[in-house]
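Input chain follows. Return structure tokens only.
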Amino acid sequence: MTLPSRIPGPPAALANPSLLPPDDAAEGQAFLEQRGSDQDGLVSVGGRHLRGGPQTLPQLADPALPSFSGRVRQGFGRGAASYETQARLQQGVAWRLGRLCRDLPLPAGPCADLGAGSGLLSRALLDQRPSLAKPPLQLDLCPELLAHNPLAGPTTAPWDLNRGLPPQLRDAGLLLSSFALQWLDDPMAQLAHWAGRLAPGGWLALAVPVAGSFDTWQAAARAASVPCTALPLPEADGLIEAAIRAGLEGPRAERLRFSQAPRDGLATLRLLSSLGATASRQPPLATGQLRRLLAHWPAAPLRWEVLVLVGRKAGGAPSLPAAPSPPYGPPC
């Protein structure tokens, strides 16, 4: 499905329900106002009920984390308290992904939110699909974010997704992920691993920022002749191809482009810092390099390109529900 190349960002749409189609407007407002909570384990779908998921997870996250994983954890830990007040884009994309999952024909098997953070995606799903009486299992590397997640049980263990999925998630009915895959060491390999854990007819639904985002940052780094310390993002085409190779049938792929009002470099970096999204695979810039970067930052909108992908593992019901109308209003 092809969406408009540029659509208004989700913060404006969710703050002003008049920008949404009538059905989506009421539901979007309800999502902003309602914060459901359920602290049990794995969700039961398709008649098979699994209990106690978070309580039985082994503690895989330990002080000897790989260097980059440790920096990711520390960054989001520092930003955990303010994450939801700043993560308007992530909230809007979670709403979109939850809407796409609302009518999926799920097979029996567990459900999990991979890189769940504060639970934005799972709450969006539960708000739009209340037949899921229990929340998806909440997996995340950062205990500070999980502490702000009303769906995470008190003994939920931090989980490093670079190490694969826990054994409880074999033959999963639904695996969800939003704004998490890009932080992993090998996104395409992990996507294939997730697809391999699905039951026949199980669904993988994810949203991930992809290459093409942060073009103003990259332009500033080139003009200033300094390294670009923005996180390298996976290519959308590569992820789609990986999903197909992993056995997902007819994956629906939407490439969404979001633009925020022009921000200078300092405002952009402060926004990312408030989210906790500060980890970089590059060494930090020296003070003089940072000053040159900010001096060359163009007065242009901050842009994100996000891949939304929903696919089914072979062996289940063949039909994919029709895509809902884009919930953020007409193209501009």
